[in-house]
Specification:
Helix content: over 70%
Structural class: mainly alpha
Shape: flat
Number of strands: 0
Radius of gyration: 28 Å
Length: 351
């Protein structure tokens, strides 16, 4: 009987042809498999091609014409629009502006959001289990509130607050004894227009990413923080060694979304600085595109700008993924799982 069981086990464990390096057998296409692929792969792929790829191909075509936008007549001009674009000093200024926004806005926003999230979730009493501060729900609501307000309203409100004559900001600073800010034009000076714009964008978005990071930190195993606490790690060390590596993918996603929002920034800029700011210091590509298309009726040239903006966005996302991979993306989670496994093993040995 024992020999029979051993022989049966050996036969059942015999590798399949695919495991031995042979060619795997193709599964039959049943009705269930076909309907599954059509429903969950075919339909989304068709929607993506119809509403994403096809319009992008159309945009590339119109970018190579001199179409005026309001007539069916146009002439194919090849790459002339792209050549003209990179010889346009105003467009190059807009390109530099959005590059500055794509670097500074995500960096500042994510840093502040992470600080708020860590303080709310891990900033409680140092004694006892790791927990957040008292009234954490209230602070989450307060930090999220600016994101609920539409961006156009945020831009218009802050434009009034920056007003040099009747703005609240100058009034407060002057009341504090800072006479240099009497009738100071925050949006009218080249040196202050871009920082003022960045501040408004950060103020409007930081709450959402703080809530996003709070949710990510809640998913980190509590025993990791307890182990770090037992080992004598402070809050700053715990944040750097455990929290950041554990939510690294969330930070990467947030940076990509924020970078895309910063590369556009049309609503905020149009609400606060519709002319592009002093000496075009806050002009963005989308704002320049809007002016060329609807004020100058050069839709072919404007479409070429849109194509370049799309390419810049894709390159930005690719660079974020590349930097994350080169700097060890995913290693933090592996280390966290290893630490958790070691602690579980140590508990088992102790028992």
């Amino acid at each position: 009987m024992k020999d029979t069981i051993t022989t049966s086990d050996t036969a059942s464990r015999r590798p399949t042809p695919a495991a031995r390096g042979g060619r795997p057998r193709r599964r039959k296409l049943t009705f269930d498999r076909v309907t599954f692929f059509l429903a969950f792969l075919g339909v989304p792929l068709a929607i993506f091609v119809l509403f994403v790829l096809y319009p992008f191909v159309q945009a590339i075509f119109w970018a190579m014409t001199d179409w005026r936008g309001f007539s069916p007549d146009y002439k194919f001009v090849g790459l002339d629009n792209f050549t003209k674009m990179f010889q346009d000093d105003i467009f190059l200024k807009a390109l530099r502006n959005v590059a500055l926004l794509a670097v500074c806005v995500p960096l500042v926003t994510l840093t502040l959001a992470l600080g708020v999230a860590v303080a709310i979730t891990l900033g409680g009493p140092s004694k006892g289990p790791v927990r957040g501060i008292r009234g954490a729900s209230f602070y989450r609501i307060i930090s999220f509130f600016p994101y609920v307000v539409p961006a156009i309203i945020v831009g218009l409100v802050w434009a009034q607050m920056y007003d040099p004559n009747a703005g609240l900001l100058n009034g407060v600073l002057t009341g504090l004894g800072l006479d240099g800010f009497d009738k100071f034009a925050w949006l009218g000076e080249t040196m202050s227009a871009m920082p003022a714009l960045m501040f408004v964008i950060v103020w409007g978005l930081v709450g959402f990413y703080a809530v996003l990071f709070i949710a990510a930190i809640k998913g980190v195993p509590g025993e990791l923080y307890e182990a770090a606490k037992i080992d004598g790690a402070g809050r700053f060390r715990t944040t750097i060694s455990i929290t950041l590596p554990s939510i690294r993918d969330t930070v990467q996603t947030g940076y990509i979304y924020l970078g895309i929002a910063a590369l556009d920034s049309f609503v905020y800029v149009q609400a606060m600085l519709p002319g592009g700011g002093p000496d075009n210091s806050t002009l963005t590509i989308s704002q320049r595109l809007f002016t060329v298309a609807f004020a100058k009726q050069q839709f072919g040239y404007a479409t070429a700008m849109g194509v370049v903006l799309a390419v810049v966005t894709l390159v930005f996302a690719a660079l974020v993924f590349l930097v994350n991979r080169l700097t060890g993306g995913g290693e933090g989670k592996k280390k966290a799982r290893g630490l958790k496994a070691r602690r579980a093993g140590a508990k088992g040995v102790a028992q």
